[in-house]
Amino acid sequence: MWKKHLKMFLLYKKAQGLAERTLQDYEYNIGLFFKAYPNALKDDERLEMAVLEYFSSIGHLAPATFNSRRKNLNTFFLWLKDEKGIIEQNPICHIKRRKEEKLPRASDEETLAKLLKAPDITTFAGLRDYALIVLTLDTGIRPGEAFGLLKKDFDLETGQIEIPAEVAKTRTRRILPILPQTVLAIAELIQSRHKYWPDTVPVFCTENGGKLGKNQWGRRMIEYGEKIGKKVTPYQLRHSFALLFLRNKGSAFHLQQMLGHTTMEMTEKYVYLSKSDVDEVHYTASPLNKLMPMKKE
């Protein structure tokens, strides 16, 4: 019984354009549960008991793994409830997410390249999303700051944007340089605006000229993440800018100015080097290389 529903659910998600990797995660995590409790869908009470027992049994897993299984089952059960009417209640509502250690995480360049191709730029919303992704990867701007920018804050001729004090999180005005690629994306977005919208409508607005919200932007990023098979968040884009900026020989001082951090300590905490970066830097920078150079055989 559950296999039939899972097969239909996966076809439904595939039709929505989800990446193969995402579909595989759904199939694996949902399958794990039903292989342990094959009769769980016979009635809601049996399903609730099975869910409680299952998550009690996997409590030893890492929070990220626990949350991944919870998320996949939650989506499946919501589909069974809302789309198919097979169950009356979603039993996952009783299961809380585990707190994950919040270390800054960047997306790899391959993921970012796929993300840039994900928005449908033939629509206003898709063009807006594309321009906002490009701007974030170019400057590391905070999402909340970007949402408040108006046309007057962009100087496309000189390639600069001003983040006014009333928009900046730190309430300190700053000027950010932008590349020609970003200038082009912003120019196309501004050109596509409704001709009757006043200049008080933010550049990154909704299709109706309303202000784009944090939750709305987060949901858009979730959709793009599912489309490319990788989790990407708005702040992950900011961190990706920071880490890649340093990898490309940018200085921590200039990064602090770009990110709008009030102290260098904040920048150092925000940007961490991956183990591969540390290994590479250590290999080239260790004083022992000069004190005790390896002999070539």
TrEMBL record:
<feature type="domain" description="Tyr recombinase">
    <location>
        <begin position="102"/>
        <end position="283"/>
    </location>
</feature>
<dbReference type="GO" id="GO:0006310">
    <property type="term" value="P:DNA recombination"/>
</dbReference>
<dbReference type="InterPro" id="IPR002104">
    <property type="entry name" value="Integrase_catalytic"/>
</dbReference>
<dbReference type="InterPro" id="IPR050090">
    <property type="entry name" value="Tyrosine_recombinase_XerCD"/>
</dbReference>
<dbReference type="InterPro" id="IPR044068">
    <property type="entry name" value="CB"/>
</dbReference>
<dbReference type="Pfam" id="PF00589">
    <property type="entry name" value="Phage_integrase"/>
</dbReference>
<dbReference type="InterPro" id="IPR011010">
    <property type="entry name" value="DNA_brk_join_enz"/>
</dbReference>
<dbReference type="InterPro" id="IPR013762">
    <property type="entry name" value="Integrase-like_cat_sf"/>
</dbReference>
<keyword id="KW-0238">DNA-binding</keyword>
<dbReference type="GO" id="GO:0015074">
    <property type="term" value="P:DNA integration"/>
</dbReference>
<keyword id="KW-0233">DNA recombination</keyword>
<dbReference type="GO" id="GO:0003677">
    <property type="term" value="F:DNA binding"/>
</dbReference>
<dbReference type="InterPro" id="IPR010998">
    <property type="entry name" value="Integrase_recombinase_N"/>
</dbReference>
<feature type="domain" description="Core-binding (CB)">
    <location>
        <begin position="1"/>
        <end position="81"/>
    </location>
</feature>
<protein>
    <submittedName>
        <fullName>Integrase family protein</fullName>
    </submittedName>
</protein>
